[in-house]
Design goal:
With 199 residues, the protein is α/β, with parallel strands linked by helices. The chain has 2 domains: 102 residues, 3-Layer(aba) Sandwich (Rossmann fold); 77 residues, 3-Layer(aba) Sandwich (Rossmann fold). The protein has an 8-stranded mixed beta sheet, with helices on both faces. Helix 6 links the parallel strand 7 and strand 8. Helix 1 packs parallel to helix 6 and helix 5 crosses helix 6. The longest helix has 24 residues. The chain is globular and about 50 Å long. The chain starts with a strand and ends with a strand. The mean pLDDT is 97.
Amino acid sequence: MSLRVAILISGSGSNMVALADSMQGAHPARPCLVLSNNPDASGLDKARAMGIPTAAFDHRPFGKDRAAFEAELLKPLQQARPDLIALAGFMRVLSGDFVERFEGRMLNIHPSLLPKYKGLNTHARAIAAGDTEAGCTVHEVTAALDDGPILGQARVPVLPGDTAETLAARVLPMEHRLYPAVLRRVASGDRSLLTLSGP
Ligand code: GAR
C-alpha cells in the first residue's frame, strides 16, 4: 500500500507539482489531497489537471479565529487520511494544537538555510546580510515557526548584483529537486540529512 500524502499550498504550487510529479511508479507514496487557504491559488488548477482531489478554505472570513479556520481545514484533511502532510508554499502559521495532531508526519520547505532567516523575505535578508550562499531547507514541522528537525538542505551561491527575485529564481529549482528527494526518503523511512548544492 502506498503512503498517502496531503499537500498544502497557498499560491502557484510549483513545489506541489514537483512533489506530485515525483510520486509515480515505484515511489512509496501518492498524493491524496491538495488543500489551500486560498481558493484562487493557481496551484489548485494544476492539482485538478493532475487528477488530484482538491479543497480550499479562505482563511480571511475567519479573521483572528485561527481555531475556527483550522477546524475547517481539518475536515477534508481527516477525510483524506494522509500518512504525511507536505506544506509547500503554505503561507499560514498553523497552531501548536494543529501541528501536534500530525507530529512527525508534517514536512515544510522554507526558502533559506535554516536556522537562518525564519519567517518572510528570506532572500532579501540573506542579500542584506552579505551572505555568499543561500538556499532552502526541508524540515519536520513543530509548533515553533520554521523550526523542527532538518531533513534536507540545498545551497546556491549568492552572486554580485543579486536581487531577492534573481536569488529566488536560483533557489526555486533547487526546491523542486530537494523536496521530492526528501519526501521519497521520508516515505521510505529514511530521515537522515540530505544536502544538495546547485549552480
Ligand atoms: C517557495 O519558495 C517556498 O519555499 C516558499 O514559498 C514559495 C512557494 O512557491 N515558502 C515559504 O516561504 C514558507 N514560509 P510555490 O507555491 O511555487 O511552491
